């Protein structure tokens, strides 16, 4: 029973890692590089939702606040691509890494100077509510997180598999030159993907904030999500989600049954093991397509 | 009537004059070949037409539209398709997916319609699939339809790239060394396809090619270039017997004598 309880919490946490990891994968597909500001975009998204929705701030209804925050963060993501990332087009991948690390600091500073560094709580309709099922306590926030993650993943999958824009984005990520030749506006598509990743980061941020207080440093969770994306194979959306779930589930179980600080190390140990045994990740694009 | 018109086009990379004052016109329904030694600027001319490079000077007009300053993704919708010397395909996709991607600019459905998979989307999808199947049949790619590009042999990938260009339903197709790296039989097949493209599909073909046998077999007119400058323009026989062209390929007799 205790294991089931841990498993449930782990899956809910893993969903958040997975959502941030989805952001990593999106950007990796669009710009062929890693966006280390992904965690900070999540943080900013959560704060914007808080700023719009909390009763002592703008006090908008929760749903409206979240949707507005997604739209705003979509704009932030699009703007980052437009103003910053596009300038280093054609530079080595490393340039994007350094640039996004710096960007992360900027976003943290921006959030810190608006909302301060003391932890704040996002007011949601489901914060602190629980359901009893058998012997386990199910947090409503956890249930919502799992549900939202499932819906969002299916939505993204459908977007990439079926829509004209999604197919264009996939094409551009595989071969930019070829994409141009068949008429794909590669730059515009990349901007759109950055916007999408901003919106996804906001969802992750809101889900994270529904379970506890937030401060401008919660973006460091992005490192764990990055490990999840690497475990999943960087280029694979379902891989990212599963990588997140794996880390999410292992953490609490290791915390309960393994000694000392092992839980904090577990995500990175898994990442190392995966990198050594399957360097291209558990669900690398190559393998996923072979099926 | 000329479909493509290049007037005094030039592109300089720093001090290197990759293309320097080339003019030519490709007539509708014509097979036009550009030949020249390695580094003569042939592929660069293609890259100017597909707007991957921006011209230093000159003007290119296609079907009455000035494309000199057009963004490169707007070239395809005008009806210009191309292949690359080094093959640019979507490697982690199947042959069918690559060809369907060629239909991109012909898709008119929007995001919401796509997600809802409306009858309009289905109708359009069937039409694209039909066009792609015609190309598959024409190039005899049936056996590879569901195969990933990454695992295919070089010769097949070359054909798939021609297929993607054809699936785009262009008016003008640019073929960058379609026979390079192919066996004698395969390059004969390419010659037949080029003939059919012109005759049955009404396409205009502009090709860069080293294989003079292929050029002589299919091209109506040939432009020879060297060091970014035009050398000769005429029928394959005329160009081949041009003293400047022979000098460019073999070295000048005067130099040898000296």
TrEMBL record, chain A:
Localization per record: Cell membrane
InterPro entries, per database record:
ABC_transp_permease (IPR001851), BCAA_transport_permease (IPR052157)
The membrane-spanning stretches of this chain are 6-27, 34-52, 58-80, 92-116, 136-160, 192-209, 221-250, 262-283
Q: Does the keyword Nucleotide-binding apply?
A: no
The record's listing under CDD domains reads: TM_PBP1_LivH_like (cd06582)
One GO term of the biological process aspect: amino acid transport
Per UniProt, which keywords does this protein have? Amino-acid transport, Cell membrane, Membrane, Transmembrane, Transmembrane helix, Transport
User: Any signal peptide, and if so, which residues?
Assistant: none
Give any GO molecular function from the UniProt entry.
transmembrane transporter activity
Q: Which GO terms describe its cellular component?
A: plasma membrane
Q: What topology in the membrane does the UniProt record assign? A: Multi-pass membrane protein
What is stated as this protein's family in its record?
Answer: Belongs to the binding-protein-dependent transport system permease family. LivHM subfamily.
Protein's name in the database: Branched-chain amino acid ABC transporter permease
Automatic annotation (TrEMBL), chain B:
Q: Which GO terms describe its molecular function?
A: ATP binding; ATP hydrolysis activity
Q: Does the keyword Transport apply?
A: yes
Q: Which GO terms describe its cellular component?
A: plasma membrane
Please verify whether the record's keywords include Transport.
yes
Please give the Pfam families that the UniProt record associates with this protein.
ABC_tran, BCA_ABC_TP_C
Q: What PROSITE patterns would the database entry show?
A: ABC_TRANSPORTER_2
What PANTHER family does this protein map onto? ABC TRANSPORTER ATP-BINDING PROTEIN, CONSERVED COMPONENT OF ABC TRANSPORTER FOR NATURAL AMINO ACIDS-RELATED
**Know the name of this protein?**
ABC transporter ATP-binding protein
């Amino acid at each position: 029973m205790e294991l089931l309880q841990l498993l449930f919490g782990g899956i809910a946490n893993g969903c958040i890692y997975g959502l941030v990891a989805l952001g990593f994968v999106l950007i990796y597909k669009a710009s062929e590089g890693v966006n280390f500001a992904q965690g900070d975009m999540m943080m900013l998204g959560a704060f914007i939702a808080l700023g719009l929705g909390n009763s002592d701030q703008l006090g908008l209804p929760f749903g409206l606040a979240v949707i507005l925050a997604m739209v705003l963060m979509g704009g932030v993501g699009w703007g980052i691509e437009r103003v910053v990332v596009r300038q280093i087009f054609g530079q080595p991948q490393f340039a994007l890494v350094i640039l996004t690390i710096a960007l992360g600091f900027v976003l943290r500073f921006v959030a810190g100077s608006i909302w301060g560094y003391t932890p704040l709580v996002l007011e949601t309709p489901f914060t602190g509510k629980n359901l009893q099922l058998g012997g386990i306590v199910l947090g409503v926030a956890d249930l919502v997180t799992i549900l939202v993650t499932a819906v969002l993943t299916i939505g993204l999958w459908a977007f990439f598999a079926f829509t004209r824009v999604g197919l264009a984005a996939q094409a551009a990520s595989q071969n930019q030159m070829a994409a141009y030749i068949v008429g794909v506006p590669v730059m515009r598509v990349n901007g759109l993907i950055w916007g999408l990743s901003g919106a996804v980061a906001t969802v992750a941020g809101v889900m994270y904030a529904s379970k506890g207080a937030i401060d401008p440093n919660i973006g460091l969770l992005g490192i764990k999500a990055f490990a999840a994306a690497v475990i999943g194979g960087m280029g694979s959306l379902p891989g990212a989600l599963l990588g997140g779930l794996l880390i999410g589930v292992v953490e609490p179980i290791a915390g309960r049954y393994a000694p000392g600080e092992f839980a904090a190390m577990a995500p990175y140990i898994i990442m190392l093991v995966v990198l050594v045994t399957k360097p291209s990740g558990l669900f690398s694009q190559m393998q996923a397509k072979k099926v | 009537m000329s479909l493509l018109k290049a007037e005094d086009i030039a592109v300089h990379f720093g001090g290197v004059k990759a293309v320097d004052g080339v003019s030519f016109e490709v007539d509708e329904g014509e097979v036009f070949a550009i030949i020249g030694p390695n580094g003569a600027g042939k592929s660069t001319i293609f890259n100017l037409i597909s707007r991957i490079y921006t011209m230093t000077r000159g003007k290119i007009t296609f079907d009455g539209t000035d494309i000199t300053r057009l963004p490169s993704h707007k070239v395809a919708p005008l009806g210009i398709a191309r292949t690359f010397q080094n093959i640019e395909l979507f490697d982690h996709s199947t042959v069918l997916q690559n060809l369907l991607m060629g239909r991109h600019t012909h898709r008119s459905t929007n995001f919401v319609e796509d997600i809802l998979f409306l009858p309009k989307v289905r109708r359009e999808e069937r039409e694209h699939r039909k066009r792609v199947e015609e190309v598959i049949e024409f190039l005899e790619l049936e056996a590879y339809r569901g195969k990933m590009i990454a695992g295919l042999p070089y010769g097949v990938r070359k054909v798939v790239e021609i297929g993607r260009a054809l699936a785009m339903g262009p008016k003008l197709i640019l073929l960058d060394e379609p026979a390079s790296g192919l066996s004698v039989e395969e390059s004969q097949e390419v010659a037949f396809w080029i003939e059919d493209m012109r005759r049955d599909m009404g396409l205009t073909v502009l090709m860069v090619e080293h294989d003079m046998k292929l050029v002589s077999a299919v091209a109506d007119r040939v432009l020879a270039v060297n060091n970014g400058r035009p050398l000769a323009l005429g029928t394959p026989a005329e160009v081949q017997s041009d003293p400047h062209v022979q000098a460019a390929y073999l070295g000048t007799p005067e130099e040898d004598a000296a």
